Amino acid sequence: MSDIINLSYALDTFYILMSGALVLWMAAGFAMLESGLVRSKNTVEILTKNVGLFCIACLMYYLSGYAMMYPGEAVAANNAYWPGFNFFVGDDNVAKEIVSGANESTYSGMADFFFQIVFVATAMSVVSGAVAERMKLWAFFVFAIVMCGFLYPIQGYWKWGGGFLDQAGFVDFAGSGVVHLTGATAAFAGVLVLGPRMGKYGKDGRINAIPGANLPLAALGAMILWLGWLGFNGGSELAIANIDEANIVALIFVNTTLAAAAGGLAAILSAQVILRKPDLTMLLNGILGGLVAITAAPETPTPGLALIIGAVGGVLVVLAVLSIDRLKIDDPVGAISVHGICGIWGLLAVPLSQESASFSTQLLGVGSIFAFIFITSLVVWFIIKAVIGIRVDPQVEYDGVDRHECGIYAYPEFIVNN
Q1: pLDDT(254) > 90
Q2: Torsion angle of the four alpha carbons 245, 246, 252, 257, in this order, in degrees rounded to the nearest 10
Q3: Domain residues of the chain, as ranges?
Q4: With 70 as the cut, is the pLDDT of residue 78 above it?
């Protein structure tokens, strides 16, 4: 029996670590997707943001994020709404076995810590695309410190740390709200403070398209994200070493894939009807929208229902991107639509597959996460704006932030030296 327990522990721990590695690989997906959807003169900066934010996320989650989000036995939370300011992971938090699930599966606490690190980085990655091409690099990094070290862990504690949303019965299996809606809401607040890119909206109300520089790269990024999402959703089961858990993981993989495929197809069909063309960017964002939507509960729908949830997400992406543009809210990569609107839809769709989940409780979760992150992010953005500024000068924006912010170009062969 001891050998069986040891094998189960080792297998579950290995599964969580490999799932976390897949989620880490999503950072490359975000970097490729966003660099493909911005103009060539801003490529280096968007890559720097994506790589830099991952470094910041890892360090801040180690310093304060994990201890606040999961106070655990070492430091008790103040109450169900406020976990308190806790710092450093500490041996008491991670150097132990964790017991969870109906079958009492066990795994290393250190593996869980690693898995959670890559989740907070994913949330911050959502922000970088929405504020692309006109935000100061260091202003973005300062916000990343606050977001990853404090804002994300507080609302994450409400659900995954055993706070008031978890106690109320709010369901968010892998993070449609905790990760994706949180990132999109922080991005939304930042975009409102930042304003649109120069030339995006004409004085006559015209919306000017600003095409990305490298759509093959964007397509590669979307496919990398799809692959990584299997670890994102599948790994959230936190176990695979028995028949029941293995079957659930298999269902999660199938549902995640079907939702993504349905989201992409629904988006490109919607684009054909509305825009009279099969827009590639809508297809890519439709895939991501389907993935975000199924993330709230990938373990309970039938494959057929997962397909429907993903398809609705794909349609919502197209409608949301066009609607947000008409409101003159400039989101170069569609991050607010994909991660925000589809995150909300995914959370509200949970009762379709879980009788114990209530629409009102899911709505409470949506409202709580949005209100907290929007208000606190808005305050942080305004403070950063007042202290160091958040937007580059008009000439810098015209020349491209690569030249002035980073000093190098991604495509130097296109640069003419005068």
Answers
A1: yes
A2: 170
A3: 2-414
A4: yes
Q: Which of 145, 149, 188, 139 is nearest to 387 (CA)?
A: 139
- The pLDDT of residue 205: 81
Instruction: Give the tens place of pLDDT for each residue, 330-354.
Output: 999 999 999 999 999 999 999 999 9
Joined together, the tokens standing for residue 322 give: 């066009």
Q: Given the structure tokens 């977001």, which residue do they identify?
A: 147
Distance of CA 42 to the CA centre of its chain: 22
Q: How far is residue 272's CA from residue 251's CA, in Å, rounded to a whole number?
A: 31
Q: What is the 3-state secondary structure (H, E, C) of 318-372?
A: HHHHHHHHHCCCCCCCCHHHHHHHHHHHHHHCHHHCCCCCCHHHHHHHHHHHHHH
Examine the pLDDT at 102 and tell me if it is beyond 60: no
Angle between helix 152-159 and 182-194 (nearest 10): 150
Fold held by 2-414: Ammonium transporter fold (1.10.3430)
From 22-26, 103-107, 195-199, 295-299, the region with the lowest mean pLDDT:
103-107
Terminal alpha carbon distance of the chain: 76
- Phi/psi for 170 (5° steps) reads -65, 135
Report the chain's C-alpha Rg in angstroms. Answer: 21
For 398, the enclosing helix (H) or strand (E) is helix 394-399
Dihedral over alpha carbons 93, 8, 178, 343 (to 10 degrees): 170
**Angle in degrees, 0-180, between the axes of helices 152-159 and 359-387, rounded to the nearest 10:** 170
In order of 13, 236, 318, the CA distances from 8 in angstroms are 8, 17, 44
Name, in order, each residue with C-beta under 8 angstroms of 6's C-beta and a sequence gap of 6 or more. none
Alpha carbons 56 and 12: distance in angstroms, whole number: 28
Collect all residues with Cβ–Cβ distance below 8 Å to 301 and sequence separation of at least 6. 255, 294, 309, 352, 353
